[in-house]
Amino acid sequence: MAEYNLPDSVRYSREDEWTRVEGDHVVIGITDYAQQQLGDIVFVELPEPGTQVAAGDPFGVIESVKTVSDLFAPITGEIVTINTDLAETPEAVNDDCYGDGWMLTIQPASSDELQGLLSAQDYAQHIKDREE
Questions:
Q1: Which DSSP helix (H) or strand (E) runs through 126?
Q2: Residues with Cβ < 8 Å from 21, sequence gap 6 or more?
Q3: What is the DSSP code string of 9-40?
Q4: Which parts of the chain are beta strand (E)?
Q5: Residues 26 and 20: beta-carbon distance below 8 Å
Q6: Residue 75 pLDDT grade (very low, low, confident, very high; cuts 50, 70, 90)
Q7: Beta bridge partners of 62
Q8: What domains, with CATH codes, occur in the chain?
Q9: What pLDDT shows up at residue 111?
Q10: Strands 52-53 vs 25-30: parallel, antiparallel or unpaired
Q11: pLDDT digits 0-9 by tens, 42-61
């Protein structure tokens, strides 16, 4: 299995998004595994703040030189902010997916959904299972 940066400080969805709680909001982006699979990212389309999203539903699109993929909400809630810098520098997702490459913040409808997300160890196993 290839080496992936999977910090213990975040939780993971089976659709390859990560979540990090910061105060009352949850920051969301795509995982190192996802950005490596996509390759060089050239475009990110995100919804407007105020948009309601439901866990498991698409909330945006990410395009790389290889493919176009949907982004899926790991939790239900209202989008508070989006990373507007990605419009000019989408490659930030490749360079620092857990930092400058974050995508949006959500005001969660419930904290219960966060408990259902994967730990770093469980997500690593999920990747391994898919690669076999």
A1: helix 120-131
A2: 27, 114
A3: TSEE-TTSEEEEEETTEEEEEE-HHHHHHH-S
A4: 11-12, 17-22, 25-30, 41-45, 52-53, 58-64, 68-72, 77-82, 104-108
A5: yes
A6: very high
A7: 44, 69
A8: 11-109 (2.40.50.100)
A9: 85
A10: unpaired
A11: 999 999 999 999 999 999 99
Structure tokens at 20: 């990090």
Question: CA-CA distance, 33 to 17, in Å (whole number)?
Answer: 10
pTM given for the model: 0.95
How far apart CA 17 and CA 73 sit, in angstroms, is 8
Burial class (CB in 10 A: 0-12, 13-18, 19+), 28: buried
Structure tokens at 40: 């060089």
- Using CA atoms, how far apart are residues 14 and 34, in angstroms rounded to an integer? 11
- Among candidate residues 104, 99, 57, 58, the one with its CA nearest the CA of residue 79: 104
Please check whether residue 98 is in contact with residue 108, taking contact to mean a CB–CB distance below 8 angstroms: no
